[in-house]
Specification:
Blueprint (H helix, E strand, L loop, with lengths): L2 E6 L4 E5 L7 E8 L6 E6 L3 E4 L7 E10 L2 E2 L6 E4 L8 E5 L2 E5 L8 E8 L6 E6 L3 E4 L8 E9 L2 E2 L6 E2 L1
Antiparallel strand pairs: 1-2, 2-5, 3-4, 3-6, 6-7, 6-8, 9-10, 10-13, 11-12, 11-14, 14-15, 14-16
């Protein structure tokens, strides 16, 4: 199998691969950067897996092997991703002159990107990248209901979007 999708999900690293004819299961392996020892296997019946034990700020290499009546396929080389956890516990509340947005800190995050949209809008508007885990949004329109979301940043790697919170 060839890994064709590798991404930071809300709960962990998500990966997916192509189906192999005759495969009865897949073995997913991972190792951290600099290690030659594979962890696993994590036995999966379908063609996707979410590694919920991956730690934020760590580089992981994933490989998948197919199992059929002949045995296990060889490693395909694998793919690498840096896990960046999604910020949780998003809160938005009214404050003097605007809306105060805060969220839980993410281990090894170097910054956070804050976005908002008006309720009913499809597109998010990028507001600002901040080093702290809060943002005072002072550029709002009275009477408009907003939804906020945040992504953590570690180096140049982003987390998934935190599900939005409305105010």
């Amino acid at each position: 199998p060839v890994i064709n999708y590798l991404s930071n999900g809300v709960n962990g690293v998500k990966l997916a691969w192509n189906a192999v004819d005759g495969a009865t299961a897949y073995y997913v392996y991972r190792r951290t950067a600099g290690s030659s020892k594979w962890e696993g296997p994590y036995v999966v019946k379908g063609e996707s897996y979410e590694d919920t034990t991956a730690k934020s700020g760590v580089y992981y290499k994933y490989a998948v092997r197919a199992l059929n009546e002949a045995g296990l396929s060889p490693y395909n080389g694998g793919k690498v991703i840096k896990r960046v956890a999604t910020p949780m516990n998003l809160y938005a509340g009214n404050t003097a002159g605007g809306i105060f947005v805060k969220w839980g800190k993410v281990e090894n995050a170097t910054a956070y990107r804050v976005y908002r949209k008006a309720v009913g809008d499809d597109a998010w508007t990028y507001l600002k990248t901040v080093k702290n885990n809060y943002y005072p949004d002072l550029d709002i329109e009275a009477g408009v209901d907003y939804i906020y979301t945040v992504r953590a940043l570690s180096g140049k790697v982003y987390s998934n979007f935190l599900p939005g919170v409305a105010i």
